[in-house]
Amino acid sequence: MKLKITDNRKQLPRGKIRTGTWHYLKITLLVFGIAGLWQSLHSLILPLRVLDFVPEAQKNTYLGLLTFSGLIVAMLVQPIAGAISDRSTYKWGRRRPFILVGVLGIALLLPIIGVATSFTVLFLGYCLLQASSNIAQGPYQAFIPETVPSRGRGQASGIKSLLEIAGGAALLLPISRLMDNYLKSGESNWLFISLLILGCITLLLMIYTVVSVKEQRSEKPLISEVMPAWLNTFRIDLKSNRPFMWFLVSRMVVFMGLATVQQFALYFFRDVVGVTDPAAATTRFLIISIVFMLATVLPAGYMSDRIGRKPIAVTSAFMGAAGILLILINQSVSMLMVGASIIGASLGAFISTNWALATDLVAKGEEAKYLGIANMATAGGAALARLIGPVIDFFNQLEPNAGYYVMLLACMIYFIAGGLILLKVKTTGGPIRTAA
Q1: Residue 193 in 3-state DSSP?
Q2: At what angle do helices 388-398 and 367-386 cross, to 10 degrees?
Q3: What is the pLDDT of residues 365-406, one digit of tens each?
Q4: Residues 6+ away with beta carbon under 8 Å from 374
């Protein structure tokens, strides 16, 4: 006998719709810890750990391989976890059980980054860490479209972006000091203190989120509802949802530019600029960009509720290309910092308005699934950015540091392409349609 599967999307409970800055902070606070964790790992900890295991001439290749693989894991896990959470509502609600399990996994897996004795162990630990983090992130990010009315999503997304940026900035400062000590002394205690700080902050913010955010209770779904959600995670009607698809491509390309700068900045400062404290120099560059992100992220989110998401997002992508062009022309420390300020301002505006656009486009009842797919573009862009690692090493072998100039040129092209593609996103047709 064939099992009949009923689509109960309209009957699934949604969180209580609320407005107000405090509510927006409460539902987005966890991102402060998660963003700080990954910013510190990708910009400082992993580049220095890779140097412990691989030849100097191949460091960009190995770092690119490591982070590319982990981000592919993130691309697969996050939307699947989000789609299952759309159906699997338990006593705590649809999202909080996944957040709890995912962040506990982070706390248990982080020590592997410190105890790894080979590149293989580091590789496996990093991929498992990505899987665990994205089990939490997929369901977690549905809180905005699920509990915030459309008129407030620009502000809520701005606060989310603000916390992401602030988390990266606040944790980069102490972690850079600790990791510079690790680089100079080789003593592992500096590394373990860094990992402990990151793990504890994320764990505490998870506890606050699970306790403070209230979800409506519903009956536990049948397996007949959960399994189709898992199987149909990546199923989208391309013909009906062309604006969403163009949105995904644009987001992916812009984040390729951002991820490339962040991932290889430490090696750039070490090899091209020639600083003696590359972790600290990378942190100064990132902090300046973060300060300017903070200056634009909330105003951009606020303005996008009034004049639209797309004009701000397109302009900000082109601004990012201008910042990269300045660095490409002149690699003096002062010009690098000017470039960082322009890139930061552009990314703050882009991240805020682009995510607000995503929350406008998601299908009702499947918010976590579609935002997970939207974050596939983020993770996919970040993953593809890592593939330039072997290209950098190849051109560096032809001529010292030539690979870094190729990298910067590629970043400029990414930003320009992302802005041009975003022009094709039509925002007047309402939310995307779900696949049958």
Answers
A1: helix
A2: 10
A3: 655 666 667 767 777 788 888 889 999 999 999 999 999 999
A4: 247, 248, 251, 355, 358, 362
Categorise residue 387: left if φ over 0, alpha if ψ from -120 to 50, beta otherwise: alpha
pLDDT in tens, 230-286: 555 555 555 556 767 777 888 889 989 988 988 888 899 889 888 888 888 888 898
**Other C-beta atoms lying within 10 Å of the C-beta of residue 117:** 9
Q: What's the token pair of residue 231?
A: 């199987």
The phi and psi torsions of 310 (rounded to 5 degrees) equal -65, -45
Among 12-16, 185-189, 267-271, 391-395, name the one with the lowest average pLDDT: 12-16
Count the Cβ atoms, other than its own, within 10 Å of residue 333.
12
Q: Which of 164, 141, 165 is nearest to 153 (CA)?
A: 141
Quickly name the fold that domain 18-215+224-422 has: Growth Hormone; Chain: A; (1.20.1250)
- What is the secondary structure of 108-128 as a DSSP string? HHHHHHHH--SHHHHHHHHHH
Q: Domain map of the chain by residue range? A: 18-215+224-422
The pTM of this model reads 0.72
